[in-house]
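User: Write out your own:

AI:
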Amino acid sequence: MSRPGDWVVSGASPVLDRAGRDTGRSLACAEAAGCTVPTDLHTRIAYQPADRYWAFQWSETAICLALAGLTGGFCVWWLRRRRS
């Protein structure tokens, strides 16, 4: 359902018809080509492409470093204020 290496972030979606309504069918039926193709059934999957991996890693690292710096700066300010 997704490309190799992609990060699937959604759970199992219901099997939907052409109009987007839930059909009540199981996901096992949706994975069988004979079940979905003639009746135009599909599922929705939210994913992040594998090529965004490092972008996510660097942005998370930047956020963590910024929060650590702010916390450290606050602690230094608080301790200097308490000592004087």
